[in-house]
Specification:
Order of helices and strands: HEEHHEE
Number of strands: 4
Oligomer: single chain
Distance between the termini: 24 Å
Shape: globular
Structural class: alpha+beta
Strand order of the largest sheet: 1-2-4-3
Strand content: 15-25%
Helix content: 25-40%
Length: about 110
């Protein structure tokens, strides 16, 4: 799957949590229920543009709008690419971002 995502031209983030100097990109990992999750992390510059004003009790609506727009667009693109490579996907429960590869859970609490 990582090779397919890289073949589509997506930057693959390292499997370990990225350090501040690392770029964002696509991450593939196992969640607490051992399901494969595919998600996208923004570059730290975009994160900082949103987090630093919040830490200083200021708001930067332009940075927040950029963050939300980019995050949503990348999540949509990632889902489309996974579907194009014929991976069975569904949204992560209780989250509007990220994709679980495989069958949806049968337990309504998940």
């Amino acid at each position: 799957m990582r090779l397919d995502l890289a073949t589509a031209g997506l930057h693959m983030a390292p499997p370990e949590p990225p350090a501040d100097e690392d770029q964002g990109g696509v991450v593939v990992y196992l969640d607490d229920d051992a399901r494969v999750v595919v998600d996208w992390l923004p570059h730290t510059r975009l994160d900082r543009a949103v987090l630093e004003p919040a830490d200083a009790d200021r708001t930067d609506s332009a940075a927040g709008t950029r963050f939300a727009t980019v995050r949503t667009a990348m999540d949509t693109a990632l889902g489309t690419i996974l579907t194009g490579f014929r991976y069975p996907t569904h949204r992560r429960p209780h989250s509007r971002l990220g994709h679980i590869i495989g069958q949806p859970p049968t337990d309504p609490d998940h």
